[in-house]
Amino acid sequence: MKLDSAGLQVLSPAECADLLASTPIGRVVFTDHALPAVQPVNFVLDGRNVVIRTTLGSKLAVAARNAVVAFETDEFDPAARTGWSVTAIGYARAVTDPAETERLARLPGAPWAQDGEDRFGSQFIVVPIQELSGRRISTHP
Fold this sequence. Notes:
alpha+beta, Pnp Oxidase, Chain A, 46% strand
């Protein structure tokens, strides 16, 4: 088991991918008016792509087009003092192809905030994972 300088277990890419797929909520980090912005989103993995469905024209949909973004998800148990965090980095792209949009709409994991998407339309943002890293904290060696 490899540990980082803080004593956290460094996760393998396979472990990171498994953990990333195990939770439906994450945070996307992007740039908004030259400042960092973080937005919680529900997502689904499609191979090595993070797929986010957002409202057409939303701040995220506009800011994330062809931009480097970070995507993070985690799980922690404060009582047991254990947990993990996984970060994926890649260039986000807005899906414009109708056939791809239709295919992505059939993936499991319906959006949680559907009202705005119903009124304004939805947009898929795809982040092909270029870098994947993670750490685990455990009270057990």
